[in-house]
Amino acid sequence: DEWFSRGKKLPEDPGADTVDFPKRTTPAKGYELLFQPEVVRIYISLLKESKTPAILEASAGAIQNLCAGSWTYGRYIRSALRQEKGLSAIADLLTHDSERVVKAASGALRNLAVDLRNKELIGKHAIPNLVKNLPGGQQTPAKNLSEDTVVSILNTINEVIADNLEAAKKLRETQGIEKLVLINKSGNRSEREVRAAALVLQTVWGYKELRKPLEKEGWKKTDFQVNLSNASRTQGGNSFDDSTL
User: Fold this and answer.
1) In this structure, are residues 94 and 130 in contact, taking their beta carbons and an 8 Å threshold?
2) Which end of the chain is more exposed for a tag (fewer CB within 10 A), N or C?
């Protein structure tokens, strides 16, 4: 409890591109071994070198867990992942053939984006691949991902574009609006998917700088409002999303 409470809820430093883990006076032991800087490097090596889907999923899931919440080492690890060039390795997993790997990568990016500098970088480089995983659009072949994975991706997109105008612009440039509106209005998506898509659309509409360009493209304010009456009720699942895997 003492370890997890240290530095809780301190703000992320958007200007910090390097990170120094707290100096230890005694060797790490027990569960402390799970969140030391050398472990971050091991996970990144696994993400870059392994070809086994189960290892990639587990590594991304471990990073997701370590970066969850506002505890001290979560903050350090979010920064360390950036410093060790791990963000691109995780973003690359969004194109993996295994849905489980894609979902784990999405969850990891969502927690990593709590760091403002990470959010900026993920917005620049990962939004296109996140959008490609959404249903609909002109992609061939179309992906057929589960409700849980689609909701995870939508929640990650929303985390990345919140307070990040450039990422919202990137979403608009990569066919994201079309796919989000289709989820919202098609009538064949689950309530959880519709709610998650509507949340992203509302975040986009919240940027006044984007409203005129969107209206010029033919979008209306009503396109960015939730449309639960058309949501399919056939798929189960609760509305709570864990921040860890």
Assistant:
1) yes
2) N
Task: In whole angstroms, give the CA distance from residue 98 to residue 106.
Answer: 13
Q: Are 107 and 60 in contact, with CB atoms under 8 Å apart?
A: yes
The predicted-structure confidence for 215-227, as pLDDT tens digits, reads as follows 999 999 999 987 6
Q: Please compute the mean of the pLDDT values over residues 133-152 and round it to a whole number.
A: 82
**CA–CA distance, 221 with 138 (Å, rounded to integer):** 24
Of 74, 90, 63, 66, give the one whose Cα is nearest residue 19.
Answer: 74
Residue 135 CA, distance from chain mean position:
17
Q: How confident is the model at residue 121 (pLDDT cuts 50, 70, 90)?
A: very high
HSE-up of residue 231 (Cα within 13 Å, Cβ side): 18
Beta bridge partners of residue 232, listed in sequence order: 190
117-121, 226-230, 236-240: least confident range: 236-240
Angle separating helix axes 53-66 and 99-112, nearest 10 degrees: 20
Q: Which domains does the chain have, with CATH numbers?
A: 30-133+144-224 (1.25.10.10)
Would you say 159 and 113 are in contact if contact means Cβ atoms under 8 Å apart? yes
Of 182, 199, 100, 109, whose CA–CA distance to 139 is shortest?
182
Supply 98's token pair: 């295994």
Beta bridge partners of 190: 232
- Provide the whole-model pTM: 0.84
The CA-based diameter of the chain, rounded to the nearest angstrom, is: 62
Please tell me what DSSP assigns to residue 11: P
